[in-house]
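INFO  loader      accepted 1 record
INFO  loader      residues=253
INFO  predictor   begin
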Amino acid sequence: MSHKSKIQIALFIPCYVDQFYPQVGIAALGVLEKLGCHVSYPLDQTCCGQPMANAGYERDTVGTTRHFIETFKDYDYVVCPSGSCVLHVKEHSPKVQGLEKAQMALHDKIFEFTEFLTDVLKVDSFSGSFPHRVGYHASCHGQRGLRLASSSELKIKPFNKAKQLLENLEGLDWVELSRPDECCGFGGTFAVSEEALSVQMGKDRLADHLSHQVEILTGGDMSCIMHLQGIASRQKQKIQFKHIAEIINEVLP
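INFO  predictor   done
INFO  writer      dumping tokens
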């Protein structure tokens, strides 16, 4: 993408990142700026409405959806370090009367972080050193909704946009898991309504990483990573957790 500094990019930071993992938002901003992008953080942004919609109250999110559209409609691109929030805005937000054109335009210009790097900025890979054994958790919304990585149930050529960005880093050992695209069990409100099942799924997902001696577990959705990190903490496991934006920001000069 040419003339990156002239293109207006808005950074959308999900609620849980803002409240619990602000370093992820800072890292995402750092990466974009290091790549020459002009990035703004609209201070009026709020929740996109996904938690209410997931709980069955999608029609009650018209207000948050309207506010989201009005906040971000004038930017060329909207970038978010969360596949689940991006998928909600693109596919599950209710239609807002009077803002149909702006809502349709937003559908085409909002991108998940790794998707923006690979598909818009056309970044093939990064150079640098990150001497760690890394396991990647492919979150369901990003993988199966946004197609950030191939799914094992589809007989297609394997791909993974996060792996594309990280695999050439010096010293990085990308771990291939036994079940690379299994759900961690978080699922937002699912973790509340089906706590026991959610926890067991998380334990199974974490066990796959631990059995492969993963040092750092990364991914593109801090909600899933938060779920796995909580289980690891209760089990007193020493595995580390980082959003992929944190890794990239660390290696970029």
